[in-house]
Amino acid sequence: MIASLRNVLLSSAPPLPGHDDEESKGQFSLSRNDFLRMAAAGAVAAGMSGKAMAAGATGAVPPVTDIDLLYDAWQQRFNDADLDGLVDLYMEDVAYINSDGVLMTGRDKVREDFAGLLSIKPTIVLGNRKHYVYRDVALTTNHWRMNFTNPDGAMQEMTGGGIEVMTRDPRDGGWRYIIDDASRSAS
């Protein structure tokens, strides 16, 4: 796409000021506004929203601002083995209890736990999702089913539940876990 845009610009650009056509062939002048419009058009053509474009420019993951989509985002990122995207759904000082009942504090511990888990290439389905919102805090529950292949090649299934507390992050408006207990059944 970039090469196509460059070719269009080269073929339609006027000569640089103070240069004849032959001397400035293959060169063009582009204002900052023209460049930004062109970048925005390219991003739209690539299917990126303004927030995603901004996040892509900084390397950050776009926040999930609709709590109804948070479990979908978590499940998708987990199943895609998107470790950065998954960890971004947690506050920096999160209290995380993994499926073995081990309490871990902070994103770094969440990253370590998920890195090990994602290495076996599991898939998860989050069902029976519920959330109760009070201002910028939510209590959520779910049941999950995870499938993975053992080292001997046998398919395994684990089931469980999660009880979480989420908050809206004041920095970007995204919902993030502040307490995540994946060690119990959410009945």
From TrEMBL:
Cross-referenced SUPFAM superfamilies: NTF2-like (SSF54427)
InterPro entries: DUF4440, NTF2-like_dom_sf, Steroid_delta5-4_isomerase, TAT_signal
One Pfam family matching this protein: DUF4440
Domain called DUF4440: residue spans: 69-176
Name of the protein in question: SgcJ/EcaC family oxidoreductase
Organism: Aurantiacibacter xanthus
